[in-house]
Amino acid sequence: MKKLFAFVAAAMMVCACGGDRSTLLKVYNWSDYIDESVIPEFEQWYEEQTGEKVHVIYQTFDVNETMLSKIEKGHEDFDVVCPSDYIIERMLASDLLLPIDRDFGDTPNYIDSNLSPYIRACFDKMEGGDKNANDYAVGYMWGTTGILYNAKYVTDEEASTWEIIRNPKFADRIFIKDSARDVFSQIILLLRQKQIQAGEVTLDELMHDSSEQSMLDVENYMKQVKELVAGWEADFGKEQMTQERGWINLTWSGDAVWAIEEAAEMGVDLRYSLPKEGFTVWFDGWVIPKYAVNTKAAKYWIDFMSRPDIVIRNVDVTGYVSVSGAPEVLEAFTDEECEPLDLSYFFGPDATSVCADPVLYPDRADIERSTQEHDWGDKTPELVAMWSRVKGENANATTVIVIAVVLAAAVVFAVYKRVTSRNHGRRSANKRTKTAKK
After folding, report:
1. Of 354, 165, 358, nearest to 257 (Cα)?
2. Of the candidates 168, 324, 336, 365, which lies 20 to 30 Å from 382 by C-alpha distance?
3. CA distance 11 to 237
């Protein structure tokens, strides 16, 4: 109903403006991925900077491919959207993006002055033919893939490797993201450790390995794992962890932050590990689609979203980690209760000993074991087919019980989550989980 109301309101606004798109900015973003109070502030700021009025029509999506389909077919003239890394690559390759002009006149260029050098380097690695992603996309949020575990039942050493998901000691206590792309990427890093250690292949090279042999190796490994899995989850894994129904969860850092904070209130000690074999990082970023109409307001929107005070507010409300390396952001998320970390890779040479949450900002020693995924292109159907064979009909008794409990509690938890998550300022990774089913 809320989405229907938003759609009707947007349609009425377009009609009221007589179809004059120069006064409208159509933004398409993930659900629950912004502090919505900044939207009217942008409208006021834009008029102050340009002397022109603009009204934002803000719409949301839950699946990358839903957004992409609308743009590919030219059915929607969105001015600025926020896809995930692999979709940015796909859009670049399909010539669906416009370059982002950095000329803002007298307005500061917050994009380039605040973007973390680490994020810039990662976007340099994105594939888009002869196009550099940094010219067509500006990062928004980022995170990691790792192991969330219950310290009461799992040791730090056990959680330091991806092998933990094949440990029979934890049978029926393991939850794994229902994401072929993310699971494949972690497991291939595990299975190719000898080659990595021997210098025969790099982490980055493995992210381009979609060979038949690698697909088969991961499939065989995961078929052994599935006998121990309590559930393949898209969003309910973190709740199972906080309630101690699950002890291990292959998940994303956004989910981990939410679960760790929720569990602490119930006296449950959850921790997050980035396995020694390596792990992947992910990114979302603002882009201007090929069919955009108001490109001027679009670039100002991206600049505004890169302004440090706006960054901090969006992080506080959503719980995700911004790509901004601004000093104000570093100061805002310094936590003296945490151990010092070397965050110089992200914030610059002066940030070699920063007290911060390692789930949000991994230490340099950890980030050096990371790599990033890429779009599978025409190999995507093979990946999806492999994942379907892995899961099969593996609905064991525990899985059935878990699903039943989750469904029965869905309404109650939805209300609870709506209230508590806003107060925490640390939201779950709903957005990321919904990108998983390719």
Report:
1. 358
2. 168
3. 38
Q: Where are the alpha helices (DSSP H) in 306-425?
A: 308-318, 327-332, 344-347, 364-367, 380-391, 397-424
Q: What does DSSP say about strands 270-273 and 354-355: parallel, antiparallel, or unpaired?
A: unpaired
Adjacent-strand bridge partners of 95: none
Closest to 128 measured CA to CA, from 296, 287, 280:
287
Q: Domain spanning 2-116+126-141+285-326: which superfamily? A: Periplasmic binding protein-like II (3.40.190.10)
* Domains 2-116+126-141+285-326 and 143-281+368-433 belong to one CATH topology: yes
Largest CA distance in the chain: 66
- For 2-6, 73-77, 220-224, which range has the lowest pLDDT when averaged over its residues? 2-6
CA distance linking residue 35 with residue 29, whole number of Å = 12
Residue 308 has pLDDT above 90, yes or no: yes
Task: Look up tokens 């790792």; give the residue.
Answer: 146
Check residue 19 and give its pLDDT: 61
pLDDT digits (tens, 9 = 90+) for 121-160: 999 999 988 999 999 999 999 999 999 999 999 999 999 9
d(CA 348, CA 122): 15
**Of the CATH numbers 3.40.190.10, 3.90.230.10, 3.40.1370.10, 3.30.1330.80, which one belongs to the domain with range 143-281+368-433?**
3.40.190.10
pLDDT score recorded for residue 8: 42
**CA gap 306, 323 in Å, rounded:** 9
The two tokens of residue 44 are 């006021």
DSSP code at position 241? H
Q: What stretch of H or E contains 370?
A: strand 370-372
> What confidence score (pLDDT) does residue 393 get?
55
Q: In 10 A of CB 227, how many CB atoms?
A: 12
Between the alpha carbon of residue 320 and those of residues 205, 286, 305, 367, 432, the distances in Å are 28, 15, 14, 17, 10
pLDDT for 408-421, tens place per residue? 444 444 444 444 44
Position 253 confidence tier, pLDDT thresholds 50, 70, 90? very high
Domain boundaries, the chain: 2-116+126-141+285-326, 143-281+368-433
Residue environment code for 111-142, b if the CB has 16+ CB neighbours within 10 A, otherwise e: beebbbebbbebbeebbbeebebbbbbbbbbb
8 Å CB contact between 296 and 79? no
Q: CA-to-CA distance for 393 and 399, rounded, in angstroms?
A: 11
